[in-house]
Amino acid sequence: NLETRLMIQRDDEIGVLADSINHLATELQRYRDTRQEFFANISHDLRTPITYLEGYAQVLKKGLYESEEEKDQYLGIIHEEAVRLQHLVNDLFDLAKMEEGKVSLSLEWIDLTEIADNVVQKIMLKACEKKLTLRTKIITHVSLIYGDGLRMEQVLLNLLENAVRYTEKGSITLELDQNNTYVYLAVEDTGIGIPEDEIPYIFERFYRVEKSRSRQYGGTGLGLPIAKKLVELQGGELLVSSKLGQGTRFELRFVPGYPGD
Ligand code: ADP
Hints:
The structure is a single chain. A five-stranded mixed beta sheet has the order 2-4-5-7-6. The protein has a two-stranded antiparallel ribbon with strand order 1-3. The protein is α+β, with helices and mostly antiparallel strands. The chain contains five helices and seven strands; from the N terminus they run H-H-E-H-E-E-H-E-E-H-E-E. The longest helix is centred in the first third of the chain and has 60 residues, at 2-61. The structure holds adenosine-5'-diphosphate.
């Protein structure tokens, strides 16, 4: 009987081992799929602006336009596509550095009030162009945060740019305050919102909600994954809540003090 028991035990162990191997194989396949998808996305996103650049440059070179106005329009497209390409390359570079763990932060005590003020100045023009109201509710006495000022600005600007990009009418509100536990910075808009079932994916690389995928919105699909990583590297959290057709709220939370205290 000892023999039977040993055999059962061995069968169990083999079963566990087989499960682990299966699990590993699935993980490996998932990794391969994401990698493949990642490169397919990059190639597509790089190729599209290059095609536009090449096409319109040819049109101009061959003088295939009928008025100065038309020529200016084509030059405008070339400029837009070059900027898009520049953003994409910058984002890819940032992401690559982060994934290798090579992004170096200059941590110091920073005042989020100053950062919020700077970023509001930068986004004001874009909000005005779309006739959106830019509201700020900035409490001036929040605790200092141990973080990287420039990176924090990058994150906040990204959230505000998204808010402007995905809002057709209404307002964008930037709120800075703190409660007993944490300091928070929130960017709230009255824009197109995100479908509930897609919210879990928006922090994935290259993810774009289908409706907003069209080129009219621009964007790289890398902004949010970068933002989330940067916030986490500074010991914070990035949260989102959204209602389709009503608006979206992103919130950055930081517990004051040294990270890990
Ligand atoms: P993108 O460069 O395409 O904006 P992000 O990583 O910044 O990429 O965002 C991912 C996707 O999340 C966007 O394509 C968009 O569909 C959605 N999204 C982000 N911010 C907002 C927002 N404020 N309102 C509605 N949708 C948003």
